[in-house]
Amino acid sequence: xxxxxxxxxxxxxxxxxxxxxxxxxxxxxxxxxxxxxxxxxxxxxxxxxxxxxxxxxxxxxxxxxxxxxxxxxxxxxxxxxxxxxxxxxxxxxxxxxxxxxxxxxxxxxxxxxxxxxxxxxxxxxxxxxxxxxxxxxxxxxxxxxxxxxxxxxxxxxxxxxxxxxxxxxxxxxxxxxxxxxxxxxxxxxxxxxxxxxxxxxxxxxxxxxxxxxxxxxxxxxxxxxxxxxxxxxxxxxxxxxxxxxx
Amino acid sequence: xxxxxxxxxxxxxxxxxxxxxxxxxxxxxxxxxxxxxxxxxxxxxxxxxxxxxxxxxxxxxxxxxxxxxxxxxxxxxxxxxxxxxxxxxxxxxxxxxxxxxxxxxxxxxxxxxxxxxxxxxxxxxxxxxxxxxxxxxxxxxxxxxxxxxxxxxxxxxxxxxxxxxxxxxxxxxxxxxxxxxxxxxxxxxxxxxxxxxxxxxxxxxxxxxxxxxxxxxxxxxxxxxxxxxxxxxxxxxxxxxxxxxxxxxxxxxxxxxxxxxxxxxxxxxxxxxxxxxxxxxxxxxxxxxxxxxxxxxxxxxxxxxxxxxxxxxxxxx
Lengths: 246, 317
Known about the structure:
The structure holds two protein chains of two kinds. Chain A is an alpha/beta fold.
């Protein structure tokens, strides 16, 4: 089984979100970047398939050279090799088209991703990629087993879970549950040393175009201070008469 | 030219988000000066949608017992093409978020998910979307002729706007499904976090799973869903399905009550789409007080039972 894991390079959740250039660009100043937490769950599941079922695991990112430390971290966690498509991501469709080319060229039969990225939260790329490739697609995956080309999965639905079956090739968008939080791996020194020697191949983009353009960003309106009350009668009164939510 | 809204349902009942996207689609159709067409797939009674402005409802009935991504994408495409729809509007239920990107590729349409407001302009077509876990918004222009808009849950709201509607059945062909549903497990008789107007959530401040009785009682009085912080689900005090926060379930309710939750950034990232937030915590320095609208500095073991008792009286009054 050849697995490709899509890795987004995203600001750490604790980052301050600011915009520059008249609010047209995300301000990267002082921002710490990490592997998208949702992708990390899927990458960890891929490592399980590598160790238990002999799968090969390639990680891929569409981005500039600044994303390479994030790919190296994925290699340190245990991926065999990495691909960076040398293009600034402009929208979900552009990224999905570039990834589709990587999947076709590499002959991958299982593509794993996180269900969303922690920056734009668009939940677009995995579904678009599946559609472009005409692969089977399961979103919000919280459990997956592969036997030959048969795949059994659990996916989250509103208010519960659904068990489904499918076949490779497929795209799976994972979230917490595909592995548990405790299964996530912190790269050890040996992994970090080995990652330096693993191949990180830079490929040039196909020139896929975006279908959307971000005109500008906005920050939420500043929030007023919390209203502290010292008894539940006042709270009920405020929720009823002021906030009108009960 | 028309605007097509997909009104999602589950087991023959419309989801709450279906009424929200019909309301949204009604306004977009007015902005564009075009007709509104609402599609249901094995959905509920079309008259429920008339109440929100759906004049034309297209019903697709088939043997599918539950959602299937490829099939739903194909049906939406077929109806969009038959009805000359250039704008397709989809909700942010789990199914809506799954099918949206597939529809966009099938129609060669630009896709903007997580829209929180009506288009600020229709030419160019610009829509405001939430991003960065609600710490920012981006105003996105869809530059293609066809457009798919995903509406963020509980952002626009459902607005009654009764019309006399008509229903038409549509015979859609099904593609190879690719993914087969085997079984569905759902908690019955409980308000789900996805559907709830009010969510009551508790954290490690409750000291142990044996103390959740009062949380459940509070949820019951309010008709709310129960939720918990990540440490609580990691400790196994509550099921993982109740974990809300960045890697857990997102919450976009009207009211979110946090009991004994300190308010780590990862927790807030998942719940800050909620409109009104209340915190009950003994520690006045807890970060949640900075994110909340209302707060009580106090011991949950005293405050919550009082709140239950007073709310019961309030509800009866």
